[in-house]
Every structure is written in C-alpha cells, then in structure tokens.
Amino acid sequence: MRREDCDNSQVLVALANELRHLHTVAGRNHNDLNFTNVLVCESEDFPTTHLLDFEYAGPLDPPLDIANFFCEWMYDFESPRWFEPDPTRFPSDEQARSFIAQYLGITNYDDEVLAFQKEVQARIPYVHKFWIDWAMKNFSDRYEYVQYAELRQILVD
To answer: Tell me: the pLDDT tens digits for 64-100?
Structure first.
C-alpha cells in the first residue's frame, strides 16, 4: 500500500472489509497495520487487499488496530526521513468515520460509528507508546529509531 491509497475510497473499503474479516474469523488483531504490511491488488473491477506480516498479532481489540492504521498515515516509509511524522496526514474526522463505517458495515454515520471513533481516539496514546517502546528496546543504537521514538513521544505529550 502507498500513502496515495488513503485517498482511494475503493482501496479503503477493501482494507476495512479485509480487517473486519480478520477480526471476525481469527478473533485477533494484526497490530502492525502500516503501508508496508498491506498488499493492494488492482483489478479492472475493484481493488483487493491482503494483510501481511503477522509478527505482532495479538488479542482482539479492533479500535486499537484501526488507531494504529490511522497513526501510520502520518509516516512516509518511502522517504529517507521515514521516522518524521506529518500530523497533517492523520485522517480527517470524515475520513476516519468513513473507514470506521465501512469496517462496521454501516452505510451512514450513526451513533455506533461515533462511539467507535471515540474508542479509536482513546487508543492512540497506547499505539504511540507501543512503538516508542519497540524502537527503544530494539534499536536504541540507531539514530533514526531514536528520532522516531522521540518524535512519537511529542505526539503523545
């Protein structure tokens, strides 16, 4: 997946459905939904997505998985400065509600979508803390990862 795919409603619908399928069938979270772990397959009719790399899969908490995905919108993994978040790229409320509605299988933005969105927002600090701890535990000797952790900490504060 590429950052530009976040502007493609068909790709996001496919991903929301794929994620719901994972949560429903496996009863597990992916926990590392970043662009490098989503394969987008274009077709003439409708794109499909496939989730890759289940190294961090864990207990089911759908709002946490979606919070992680939304946080990843801020990072450009194709850039040499991949570790610098751009908060302006975080999904707008409209984008977040649209993805959540697709995930929940709801055609309009009712109270269930808004309640789920609040759950997603509440988990964002936990997402940042997880990846801060991950970077410092595994890569504290590498400048980019220390920067990644420090810049993520600013997002939490």
So the answer is: 999 999 999 999 989 999 999 999 999 999 999 999 9
Name, in order, each residue with C-beta under 8 angstroms of 105's C-beta and a sequence gap of 6 or more. Answer: 20
Contact of 129 with 156, CB cutoff 8 Å = yes
Sorted by sequence, the CB contacts under 8 Å of residue 120 that are 6+ apart come out as 63, 66, 67, 70, 96, 100
**Token pair for 111:** 């109270």
pLDDT in tens, 10-65: 999 999 999 999 999 999 999 999 999 999 998 888 999 999 999 999 999 999 99
Measuring CA to CA, which residue among 100, 83, 95 is closest to residue 135? Answer: 83
Domains of the chain: 3-123 (3.90.1200.10)
Whole-structure pTM value: 0.94
Read off φ and ψ for residue 133, nearest 5 degrees.
-60, -40
